[in-house]
């Protein structure tokens, strides 16, 4: 068989350039190339290479980083199309894209997110691919399968579906053994603005990584750093948006009673409290969330309006303006509410 023979009369111009170079056995069959013919072209000195089971590189020489990414995703595709007939009244699911629900995660995803603490794509021995837990796939070659009960919403980077930075960091740390490398990666994730510290900690807790050497120590420092930076942006918001000056970092108590909790800012004349929500999963997870919700409900019953703000909600000028509008609305609305209960306000 002549290796220069066209694949089939079916045109290939509808495919992207990288999908010209990397194809699955099923795609090749659609273009008239049988499995035997593909195997023949992959023999020594042949023009093709088999990168992964059922995935072929249609040129000589090593695969590029981009080709390896697409090959790893193509490996997760079903070997045969199984048509599904929707039942009566069923809604059509959104098209998951050319790679189904699979997405790149781990160090390869971080390279696409432009992290400097991970090797280049070509230097990576493994490319992690996140798939639904129901998929029956095995890791093979350079494709390492990572399963998830719930898949995050991917970002499309260089035409490839990629897991969010926090999830990709957690999946990368799973396979890292050097404590210094872990610390540098976690630090870059937060200080580089790729994700919030609390978001990163939630992903690390989900992966049960918080007991690893240096992980807890590093994330605690990053959480404290993130809170400090958010407090600075909160001060800027009050000053730049001309809000009334609050009492900063105070403890609220009923006279003769226990503490109702600490808040980051309190406007006593308006009975409005503001709290930075920097919850981290390793601080109690659902139990902490339930405790905070009960405390906020108690304050609301006492006539105190509680405004929650996340550190991410204070990033950027427009975010500050939006949050300031929320606080200003709460302050103005206080005139129409019943007077709040008398509280003691003490320094934190």
From TrEMBL:
Superkingdom in the source lineage: Bacteria
Protein's name according to its UniProt entry: Transcriptional regulator, AbiEi antitoxin, Type IV TA system
Organism: Streptomyces triculaminicus
